[in-house]
């Protein structure tokens, strides 16, 4: 089996808090998601929203490690909003683990998760739905994945 690769680095921004740069197979996850979302976003007239993500801020390093190594099967935040507030426009995925592998699957943008009409305003257009069916899964070798995630606890030396 060929595994996907995960590389995590602290990305420095002048005057701003460092964020996690997530690279999957050498490509920023933000870019992979932008390419995927572009089709749905263009179809719904929301092209500027496609890939509107950023890495999670450094102040959440401990929470990232706990969530990404927990393997609870529930969805966790992989990317936050480009505004700097992770919950504003997050990219979520389920993380499943076994003895040998870690899988990122079942991706979701919660604000585009399902088309629903507003019961208080039935005339309002339902929120557009963006499907991530076919995006991923990404399958990592567990030992390499664990090393990458634990590296977030070390200070950045790239700045």
Describe this structure in words.
With 159 residues, the chain is an alpha+beta fold. The chain is built from three helices and eight strands. The chain has helices at residues 29-43, 61-70, 142-150, and strands at residues 6-13, 16-24, 27-28, 53-54, 75-81, 91-97, 101-108, 138-141. A hairpin with a 3-residue loop joins strand 6 (91-97) and strand 7. The longest helix has 15 residues, at 29-43. The chain is globular and about 50 Å long.
Describe the protein's topology:
Layout: E1 6-13, E2 16-24, E3 27-28, H1 29-43, E4 53-54, H2 61-70, E5 75-81, E6 91-97, E7 101-108, E8 138-141, H3 142-150
Termini gap:
35 Å
Question: Which strand order does the major sheet show?
Answer: 4-5-6-7-8
Structural class: alpha+beta
Mean pLDDT across all residues, rounded? 87
Helix residue percentage: 10-25%
Segments where pLDDT lies below 50 for 5+ residues?
Answer: none
User: Could you describe the largest sheet, including whether it forms a barrel?
Assistant: 5 strands, antiparallel
What is the overall shape?
globular
Radius of gyration: 16 Å
Count all strands and give the number: 8
Helical element count? 3
Strand content range: 25-35%
H and E string: EEEHEHEEEEH
Give descriptors for this structure:
21% helix, single chain, 3 helices, 3-stranded antiparallel beta sheet, 5-stranded antiparallel beta sheet, alpha+beta, 159 residues
